[in-house]
Amino acid sequence: MCYRFERLYLIYSGSIYRYSSKLINVICPVFILIPLPQDDHDRGGKNPFRLSIPKIRPVVDLAIEQVYRLDLVPANSLYVIYRDTKLSDAVGPNVAIEQYKKNQLDCIIGYAFVYALAPIARITRLWGNGVPIITPVGMTNNLDDKGEYRLMTRINTPYKLMCQAVLKVFDHFEWKKHTFVFHTIKDPGVPVSECFLLLSSVKQILKDLFPALHNFFPFDEHKLDREEFIEILKQSSFISNALHSKKSTFNLQPLEFNRFE
Question: Where is the Receptor ligand binding region domain (predicted)?
Fold first, then answer.
């Protein structure tokens, strides 16, 4: 027996997309692609949240059971396809393209590597009526353009909201001097870390408010030893510490490093 839905709505990013007269059942299912790596290795920052197909599959199974239990769609009408992206910015987009070529792609949930996500998130709006993407990555400001990434929904908080929070704190305490201390791997063959991407977004809003300073202290957490980190904290403290503002409820003082010896 076929179920006909005169109005089936998918809501993404505040927009409503209507699929009129779409048959949904076990013969005509909704194809959901989940593109993730087979293992949860970080691979030099490519998988910052350590996502993998074996980790995600039980969660998806429970979610689908709940959808059927609530009778939101007919039983067995959701067809989930897992594809190994190999944390590659070539293989990752290609698995989505292959599913679209087979006419078996209605929704994408996933991607662990932002460089694999970005090209697909730009073009899925051009595929038929559009293919929505739900992803845990891609929080940087350059993916905020809803004209460009119209069908992408990020389940994590975009970095622009973090930037707004930082501005509120700086404004409240009348702070001006600041430093950035963050982990990243200085290797052109390795993607920059999420720490770098987050603080780059914060830097963009602060640079217009305060004079440019040499206030960056990147480090590799896999190689840094105790003495090097203490030196970074010393330099950072000397640059960013100042007399407290009128609104501050505490004084910023140079760090007492002897307590760590």
Answer: 57-182
